[in-house]
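## Example pair
The file below holds two records. Each record gives the amino-acid sequence first, followed by its structure token line.
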Amino acid sequence: MGWAELSRAAPSQVESRQNYKLQQYLLEEVKWLDRFFSKEGIPATVAFDELDTWLEQVSDSLFRGLSTNADRLYNEIGEIIETLKQDTAALQTAESTEEVPDRIAKIGALSRDKMIKHLFAVTEKIEIPSKTDYQTVSSFYKGTTAALEFPFGKSETNIYCVRSLFPDEIKTAIADLKRLRTSLDQLIAPLKGKESQIRQLEHVPALVQAINDVRSGIAEEKEHVNDQEEACSALERNIETESSRLERIEDSEDWKKFKALEGEVSSVKEELNTLEANVLRLFAPLTKPLKLLKKQDETGRHTLTPEERTAIGSILSSPLRALGGDINGRLRAIQKVIEGDPAVLKDRKRETALNWIEQLLQADLASITGKRERLQLQITETTSTLSDLAILQEKEELEHSLEAAQGQRAHLREEIARSKKHIVSLDEELREQKQRLVKALEELAGNEIEVTFEF
């Protein structure tokens, strides 16, 4: 059994009168609640930004008389605490004159020490608040009643033993605790039956904060979208400006000159490629016979002179490079090898190779070499002229800048689309939060409430 149980035991006549007053007080509160829920004194319309004032009105109406009641009972509880300290001190110094068995005397003495320690701790711990709002009253009530709970074991043996030793002192202390419990019950009485309204009162600020958080999120996202759109507009202007510059470059005489020279280089390169392909075709019929001669030289079946070996190797390696040297002399050296030893090639291959060498000797190979050199020189000179023209670099830099700007614009447009989608989601969340707030206010007031949101 704890102090709370002890304080509820065997009410005296004084306590009975106090309980009657408490019941009358609660009856009046119930009647007032009926008036409260009949929508008296609670504005049916409230602006969101004025909710603090509205909640104060609701709180004042809901807890009518709480402050006056608390002030009175705070004083009363303070007096009881002082009396309890004195009575606890009296219990501490009391000498027992009762004749009891040794076992009861031993248990009683130990239990008294625990009681005294706890009672002093309780009286020191209880601090009378200075505020009389419902949160303070509720917190004080919960803390004090929790402090009064003190178990003395699994049975009433300990209490019985202490009472057997110090009957008068225990009776006085228990009377103090009963008065304290009665005062605490009277203190909390105005809050009884209003638990759901209290929960709503405590929940509304969180709902208001949630709405403000979503509003801030929407404002930040809209500002972000505005910044992105301004950046996108700046990019659009930059892209338009640089596109105009690019058009002017492409319409300029310098660019037309560049394109003409570029076309010239392309045409000459194509002519050179055709010429070199024709050269390779001219020497293609000699490829197999020359490879056979080279193989026979490598295997020792026929030994070539260094001059003959060089002639065969140069043509096999690159007929184009061979044209740059004494091509006719090399062809005659090869012709001499084939004619000097009928065994080096079979009759048909020998005859074909000799006929083709003769045709090459009759051809104007020197003119082919000269034309090739002229085409190469023309390509080199025209390419050099092109490289000296700054317009290509200017155009390429401008195209790279345009490409980068267009990429940034595409990225910004994607970001803007995501941000706007997020704003739609936040707007829906805001709508739901508003509905939750209105519902909470209506449950608090007991009637329909219209909340005006100026945003």
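Second record, same layout:
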Amino acid sequence: MAGDIKRTLDSIIEQRARGSATIALSTKTKLILKGLNPDRFTLTSPDDPAILSKVRAAAAELGVALHAGSVSNVH
């Protein structure tokens, strides 16, 4: 399904930020430094398995657990 990368990146940011704009920006910056710029993906972007794997690894490093169809914060 197209757009999984964008939805997952957005979920990581939302879960980590919990409404804080500062933490959202910090999380986005961390993702960009890992080569995952959320602004470069759209809901119509094709889902490359290699990039999805990288997104899942970044989520684990940031303490966000990803489940099929949902995201929950581990902290």
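Notes on the second record: Confidence is low (pLDDT under 50) at residues 70-75. The radius of gyration is 11 Å.
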